[in-house]
Amino acid sequence: MKKRTLSVLLVMLLTAAALLTGCGNDSKSNEGTKTGLPTIGIVQIVEHPSLDTIRENILKQLEEKGFVDGKTVKIDYKNAQNDTNNLKTICQAFSSNNYDLIIAIATPSAQAALGETTSIPIVFSAVTDPVGAGLVDSMENPGGNITGTSDTVSAKKIMDLALQMTPDIKTLGAIYSTGEPNSVSVMKELKEYAETKGIKIVEATIMNSSEIQQAAQSLVGKVDAVFSPIDNTVATAMPTIVDVLNKAKLPYYVAADSMVADGGLATDGVNYVALGKATGTMAAKVLNGADTATIPVQVMSDTQIYINKKTAEEIGLKIPAEILEKATDLSE
Protein backbone atom coordinates (compact mmCIF):
# COMPACT_ATOMS: atom_id res chain seq x y z
CA MET A 1 0.00 0.00 0.00
CA LYS A 2 2.78 2.37 0.94
CA LYS A 3 4.61 1.55 -2.28
CA ARG A 4 1.51 2.34 -4.32
CA THR A 5 1.02 5.66 -2.49
CA LEU A 6 4.66 6.61 -3.09
CA SER A 7 4.33 5.74 -6.77
CA VAL A 8 1.24 7.92 -7.15
CA LEU A 9 2.98 10.81 -5.39
CA LEU A 10 6.02 10.43 -7.65
CA VAL A 11 3.87 10.52 -10.80
CA MET A 12 2.07 13.62 -9.53
CA LEU A 13 5.35 15.40 -8.80
CA LEU A 14 6.78 14.57 -12.24
CA THR A 15 3.60 15.78 -13.95
CA ALA A 16 3.68 19.06 -12.05
CA ALA A 17 7.33 19.57 -12.94
CA ALA A 18 6.57 18.96 -16.63
CA LEU A 19 3.71 21.45 -16.56
CA LEU A 20 5.91 24.10 -14.94
CA THR A 21 8.63 23.52 -17.52
CA GLY A 22 6.10 23.92 -20.33
CA CYS A 23 4.79 27.18 -18.89
CA GLY A 24 8.28 28.59 -18.83
CA ASN A 25 8.49 28.34 -22.64
CA ASP A 26 5.08 29.80 -23.51
CA SER A 27 6.13 33.43 -24.03
CA LYS A 28 9.12 32.89 -26.35
CA SER A 29 10.49 29.72 -27.84
CA ASN A 30 13.80 31.35 -28.77
CA GLU A 31 17.32 31.64 -27.52
CA GLY A 32 16.80 35.24 -26.42
CA THR A 33 14.33 34.15 -23.78
CA LYS A 34 16.60 31.38 -22.56
CA THR A 35 19.40 33.89 -21.99
CA GLY A 36 17.10 36.64 -20.74
CA LEU A 37 18.25 38.96 -23.54
CA PRO A 38 16.01 41.22 -25.64
CA THR A 39 15.35 39.58 -29.02
CA ILE A 40 15.50 41.32 -32.39
CA GLY A 41 14.01 39.68 -35.45
CA ILE A 42 15.49 40.82 -38.77
CA VAL A 43 13.53 39.91 -41.89
CA GLN A 44 14.90 40.54 -45.39
CA ILE A 45 12.82 39.93 -48.53
CA VAL A 46 15.78 38.54 -50.49
CA GLU A 47 19.56 38.57 -50.44
CA HIS A 48 21.27 40.88 -52.93
CA PRO A 49 24.12 43.41 -52.50
CA SER A 50 21.96 46.48 -51.73
CA LEU A 51 19.92 44.83 -49.00
CA ASP A 52 22.89 42.86 -47.67
CA THR A 53 24.86 46.11 -47.31
CA ILE A 54 21.98 47.62 -45.36
CA ARG A 55 21.74 44.63 -43.01
CA GLU A 56 25.49 44.48 -42.39
CA ASN A 57 25.58 48.15 -41.45
CA ILE A 58 22.49 47.90 -39.27
CA LEU A 59 24.33 45.24 -37.26
CA LYS A 60 27.52 47.32 -37.10
CA GLN A 61 25.61 50.36 -35.87
CA LEU A 62 23.70 48.33 -33.28
CA GLU A 63 27.02 47.05 -31.96
CA GLU A 64 28.35 50.61 -31.73
CA LYS A 65 25.28 51.49 -29.67
CA GLY A 66 25.90 48.55 -27.32
CA PHE A 67 23.53 45.98 -28.79
CA VAL A 68 25.81 43.02 -29.48
CA ASP A 69 24.39 39.71 -30.65
CA GLY A 70 24.77 37.01 -27.99
CA LYS A 71 25.95 39.46 -25.34
CA THR A 72 23.35 42.18 -24.86
CA VAL A 73 20.72 41.09 -27.39
CA LYS A 74 19.74 38.01 -29.36
CA ILE A 75 19.39 38.57 -33.12
CA ASP A 76 17.33 36.22 -35.27
CA TYR A 77 17.93 36.91 -38.99
CA LYS A 78 15.66 35.39 -41.65
CA ASN A 79 15.81 35.65 -45.46
CA ALA A 80 12.47 35.13 -47.24
CA GLN A 81 14.10 34.27 -50.58
CA ASN A 82 11.75 36.65 -52.41
CA ASP A 83 8.73 34.55 -51.43
CA THR A 84 5.71 36.29 -49.87
CA ASN A 85 4.58 33.06 -48.19
CA ASN A 86 7.97 32.81 -46.49
CA LEU A 87 7.66 36.44 -45.40
CA LYS A 88 4.32 35.77 -43.75
CA THR A 89 5.61 32.67 -41.96
CA ILE A 90 8.70 34.49 -40.69
CA CYS A 91 6.74 37.48 -39.40
CA GLN A 92 4.12 35.24 -37.80
CA ALA A 93 6.91 33.50 -35.87
CA PHE A 94 8.44 36.83 -34.77
CA SER A 95 5.03 37.96 -33.56
CA SER A 96 3.98 34.75 -31.81
CA ASN A 97 7.33 34.61 -30.04
CA ASN A 98 6.75 38.19 -28.88
CA TYR A 99 10.12 39.55 -30.03
CA ASP A 100 11.19 42.90 -28.61
CA LEU A 101 11.85 44.52 -32.01
CA ILE A 102 11.41 43.64 -35.68
CA ILE A 103 13.71 45.16 -38.30
CA ALA A 104 12.18 44.81 -41.76
CA ILE A 105 14.40 45.33 -44.80
CA ALA A 106 12.51 46.41 -47.97
CA THR A 107 8.84 47.27 -48.46
CA PRO A 108 7.38 43.72 -48.68
CA SER A 109 9.12 42.80 -45.42
CA ALA A 110 7.72 45.85 -43.64
CA GLN A 111 4.22 45.20 -44.93
CA ALA A 112 4.38 41.56 -43.83
CA ALA A 113 5.64 42.49 -40.36
CA LEU A 114 2.93 45.12 -39.84
CA GLY A 115 0.35 42.62 -41.04
CA GLU A 116 1.24 40.31 -38.14
CA THR A 117 1.62 42.73 -35.23
CA THR A 118 0.48 46.18 -34.15
CA SER A 119 2.18 45.95 -30.75
CA ILE A 120 5.80 44.90 -31.37
CA PRO A 121 7.91 47.91 -32.51
CA ILE A 122 8.99 47.68 -36.16
CA VAL A 123 11.83 49.62 -37.79
CA PHE A 124 11.99 49.36 -41.57
CA SER A 125 14.74 50.14 -44.06
CA ALA A 126 14.83 50.63 -47.85
CA VAL A 127 11.17 51.57 -48.19
CA THR A 128 10.81 54.06 -51.03
CA ASP A 129 7.25 55.23 -50.32
CA PRO A 130 6.20 54.42 -46.72
CA VAL A 131 2.92 56.34 -46.97
CA GLY A 132 1.95 54.86 -50.33
CA ALA A 133 2.81 51.39 -49.04
CA GLY A 134 0.32 51.88 -46.20
CA LEU A 135 2.94 51.64 -43.46
CA VAL A 136 2.71 55.05 -41.80
CA ASP A 137 0.17 57.85 -41.43
CA SER A 138 2.74 60.42 -42.51
CA MET A 139 6.50 60.76 -42.82
CA GLU A 140 6.62 63.24 -39.92
CA ASN A 141 4.27 61.34 -37.58
CA PRO A 142 4.15 57.62 -38.38
CA GLY A 143 1.42 57.15 -35.78
CA GLY A 144 1.77 53.45 -34.99
CA ASN A 145 4.21 50.73 -34.01
CA ILE A 146 6.34 51.31 -37.12
CA THR A 147 8.87 53.82 -38.46
CA GLY A 148 12.16 53.61 -40.32
CA THR A 149 14.36 54.89 -43.12
CA SER A 150 13.47 55.56 -46.74
CA ASP A 151 15.68 54.99 -49.78
CA THR A 152 13.48 57.14 -51.97
CA VAL A 153 15.29 58.02 -55.18
CA SER A 154 14.70 60.77 -57.67
CA ALA A 155 13.96 59.48 -61.15
CA LYS A 156 14.47 63.07 -62.29
CA LYS A 157 18.02 63.19 -60.85
CA ILE A 158 18.94 59.88 -62.46
CA MET A 159 17.51 60.90 -65.83
CA ASP A 160 19.21 64.30 -65.66
CA LEU A 161 22.46 62.36 -65.24
CA ALA A 162 21.48 60.00 -68.08
CA LEU A 163 20.86 62.89 -70.45
CA GLN A 164 24.23 64.40 -69.53
CA MET A 165 25.95 61.12 -70.37
CA THR A 166 23.80 60.12 -73.34
CA PRO A 167 21.92 63.21 -74.56
CA ASP A 168 20.32 61.52 -77.59
CA ILE A 169 17.84 59.39 -75.63
CA LYS A 170 14.46 59.51 -77.38
CA THR A 171 13.13 56.11 -76.34
CA LEU A 172 13.80 54.65 -72.89
CA GLY A 173 13.26 51.03 -71.88
CA ALA A 174 12.16 50.22 -68.33
CA ILE A 175 12.69 46.85 -66.65
CA TYR A 176 10.89 46.45 -63.33
CA SER A 177 8.50 44.29 -61.33
CA THR A 178 4.88 45.41 -61.22
CA GLY A 179 4.52 43.60 -57.90
CA GLU A 180 6.95 45.85 -56.04
CA PRO A 181 5.48 49.10 -54.63
CA ASN A 182 8.94 50.74 -54.64
CA SER A 183 9.24 50.22 -58.38
CA VAL A 184 5.73 51.37 -59.19
CA SER A 185 6.29 54.58 -57.21
CA VAL A 186 9.54 55.45 -59.01
CA MET A 187 8.08 54.55 -62.40
CA LYS A 188 5.25 57.02 -61.86
CA GLU A 189 7.79 59.83 -61.43
CA LEU A 190 9.84 58.57 -64.38
CA LYS A 191 6.83 58.70 -66.71
CA GLU A 192 5.98 62.24 -65.62
CA TYR A 193 9.59 63.32 -66.23
CA ALA A 194 9.77 61.56 -69.61
CA GLU A 195 6.63 63.36 -70.77
CA THR A 196 8.21 66.75 -70.09
CA LYS A 197 11.27 65.75 -72.14
CA GLY A 198 9.40 64.11 -75.00
CA ILE A 199 10.92 60.72 -74.20
CA LYS A 200 8.91 57.60 -75.02
CA ILE A 201 8.88 54.86 -72.36
CA VAL A 202 8.85 51.21 -73.45
CA GLU A 203 8.06 48.96 -70.48
CA ALA A 204 9.36 45.42 -70.02
CA THR A 205 7.64 44.37 -66.82
CA ILE A 206 8.35 41.15 -64.94
CA MET A 207 6.76 39.09 -62.18
CA ASN A 208 9.79 36.99 -61.22
CA SER A 209 13.48 36.61 -62.00
CA SER A 210 12.89 33.87 -64.60
CA GLU A 211 11.43 36.55 -66.91
CA ILE A 212 14.42 38.89 -66.68
CA GLN A 213 16.41 37.72 -69.70
CA GLN A 214 13.41 37.80 -72.01
CA ALA A 215 12.45 41.26 -70.74
CA ALA A 216 15.92 42.63 -71.45
CA GLN A 217 16.07 41.02 -74.89
CA SER A 218 12.66 42.45 -75.78
CA LEU A 219 14.08 45.99 -75.55
CA VAL A 220 17.07 45.43 -77.85
CA GLY A 221 16.62 47.35 -81.09
CA LYS A 222 13.67 49.33 -79.71
CA VAL A 223 15.24 51.76 -77.24
CA ASP A 224 18.21 54.10 -76.86
CA ALA A 225 18.83 53.31 -73.17
CA VAL A 226 17.30 51.31 -70.30
CA PHE A 227 16.31 52.22 -66.75
CA SER A 228 15.47 50.16 -63.64
CA PRO A 229 14.25 51.50 -60.27
CA ILE A 230 15.28 50.00 -56.93
CA ASP A 231 13.69 46.65 -57.62
CA ASN A 232 14.53 43.55 -55.59
CA THR A 233 13.65 41.12 -58.38
CA VAL A 234 15.81 43.03 -60.86
CA ALA A 235 18.67 43.40 -58.38
CA THR A 236 18.94 39.63 -57.93
CA ALA A 237 19.46 39.17 -61.68
CA MET A 238 21.70 42.09 -62.61
CA PRO A 239 24.38 39.96 -64.34
CA THR A 240 21.75 38.58 -66.73
CA ILE A 241 20.44 42.03 -67.69
CA VAL A 242 23.92 43.54 -67.97
CA ASP A 243 25.07 40.73 -70.26
CA VAL A 244 22.16 41.32 -72.68
CA LEU A 245 22.36 45.12 -72.66
CA ASN A 246 26.15 45.37 -72.87
CA LYS A 247 26.18 43.11 -75.94
CA ALA A 248 23.58 45.42 -77.49
CA LYS A 249 25.68 48.51 -76.49
CA LEU A 250 22.73 49.92 -74.53
CA PRO A 251 23.38 52.27 -71.58
CA TYR A 252 21.70 50.91 -68.45
CA TYR A 253 20.79 53.46 -65.76
CA VAL A 254 19.81 52.12 -62.36
CA ALA A 255 18.68 53.41 -58.97
CA ALA A 256 21.12 51.89 -56.47
CA ASP A 257 24.88 51.97 -55.97
CA SER A 258 25.05 48.17 -55.69
CA MET A 259 23.30 47.86 -59.07
CA VAL A 260 26.08 49.99 -60.56
CA ALA A 261 28.67 47.76 -58.87
CA ASP A 262 26.90 44.80 -60.48
CA GLY A 263 27.31 46.26 -63.96
CA GLY A 264 24.76 49.06 -64.35
CA LEU A 265 26.21 52.13 -66.06
CA ALA A 266 25.36 54.88 -63.57
CA THR A 267 23.05 56.33 -60.95
CA ASP A 268 22.55 59.36 -58.77
CA GLY A 269 21.41 57.55 -55.68
CA VAL A 270 21.50 56.72 -52.00
CA ASN A 271 24.56 55.42 -50.18
CA TYR A 272 23.38 52.11 -48.73
CA VAL A 273 26.09 52.02 -46.08
CA ALA A 274 24.73 55.30 -44.71
CA LEU A 275 21.16 53.99 -45.00
CA GLY A 276 22.02 50.91 -42.94
CA LYS A 277 23.75 52.96 -40.27
CA ALA A 278 20.79 55.34 -40.01
CA THR A 279 18.46 52.37 -39.61
CA GLY A 280 20.68 50.86 -36.93
CA THR A 281 20.72 54.14 -35.01
CA MET A 282 16.93 54.32 -35.13
CA ALA A 283 16.60 50.69 -34.01
CA ALA A 284 18.86 51.42 -31.02
CA LYS A 285 16.64 54.37 -30.04
CA VAL A 286 13.57 52.13 -30.09
CA LEU A 287 15.33 49.46 -28.03
CA ASN A 288 16.15 52.20 -25.52
CA GLY A 289 12.47 53.07 -25.19
CA ALA A 290 11.71 55.60 -27.94
CA ASP A 291 8.17 55.50 -29.37
CA THR A 292 7.94 54.55 -33.06
CA ALA A 293 4.73 56.56 -33.40
CA THR A 294 6.59 59.83 -32.90
CA ILE A 295 9.91 59.10 -34.66
CA PRO A 296 9.79 60.68 -38.16
CA VAL A 297 10.68 58.49 -41.11
CA GLN A 298 14.21 59.42 -42.12
CA VAL A 299 14.76 60.15 -45.81
CA MET A 300 18.32 59.92 -47.11
CA SER A 301 18.40 63.26 -48.92
CA ASP A 302 22.11 63.22 -49.77
CA THR A 303 22.74 61.33 -52.99
CA GLN A 304 25.92 60.57 -54.87
CA ILE A 305 26.80 59.87 -58.47
CA TYR A 306 28.09 56.35 -59.07
CA ILE A 307 29.47 55.09 -62.37
CA ASN A 308 30.90 51.87 -63.75
CA LYS A 309 33.85 52.66 -66.04
CA LYS A 310 34.17 49.04 -67.12
CA THR A 311 30.59 49.00 -68.36
CA ALA A 312 31.13 52.32 -70.15
CA GLU A 313 34.14 50.84 -71.95
CA GLU A 314 32.22 47.71 -72.92
CA ILE A 315 29.43 49.69 -74.57
CA GLY A 316 31.84 52.20 -76.11
CA LEU A 317 30.67 55.21 -74.12
CA LYS A 318 32.94 58.09 -73.15
CA ILE A 319 31.84 59.56 -69.81
CA PRO A 320 31.98 63.39 -69.78
CA ALA A 321 34.87 64.83 -67.76
CA GLU A 322 32.57 66.91 -65.54
CA ILE A 323 30.83 63.72 -64.39
CA LEU A 324 34.07 61.80 -63.87
CA GLU A 325 35.31 64.55 -61.57
CA LYS A 326 32.49 64.09 -59.04
CA ALA A 327 31.53 60.44 -59.54
CA THR A 328 32.57 57.36 -57.61
CA ASP A 329 33.66 54.48 -59.84
CA LEU A 330 32.29 51.14 -58.59
CA SER A 331 33.74 48.95 -61.35
CA GLU A 332 36.64 47.70 -59.25
Give me some keywords for this one.
14 helices; 332 residues; 13 strands; alpha/beta; disordered N terminus
Structure description:
Helices cover 45% and strands 18% of the residues. It has helices at 2-23, 31-35, 49-64, 84-96, 107-116, 155-165, 181-197, 212-219, 232-235, 238-247, 257-261, 272-287, 309-314, 321-326; strands at residues 39-44, 74-79, 101-105, 122-125, 146-150, 171-177, 200-206, 225-227, 252-253, 266-270, 298-299, 303-307, 328-329. A 6-stranded parallel β-sheet has the order 2-1-3-4-5-11, sandwiched between helices. Helix 7 (181-197) links the parallel strand 6 and strand 7. The model is unreliable at 1-33 (pLDDT under 50).
Helices and strands in order:
Elements: H1 2-23, H2 31-35, E1 39-44, H3 49-64, E2 74-79, H4 84-96, E3 101-105, H5 107-116, E4 122-125, E5 146-150, H6 155-165, E6 171-177, H7 181-197, E7 200-206, H8 212-219, E8 225-227, H9 232-235, H10 238-247, E9 252-253, H11 257-261, E10 266-270, H12 272-287, E11 298-299, E12 303-307, H13 309-314, H14 321-326, E13 328-329
Parallel strand pairs: 1-2, 1-3, 3-4, 4-5, 5-11, 6-7, 6-8, 8-9, 12-13
Antiparallel strand pairs: 10-12
Helix pairs in contact: 3-12, 4-5, 8-10
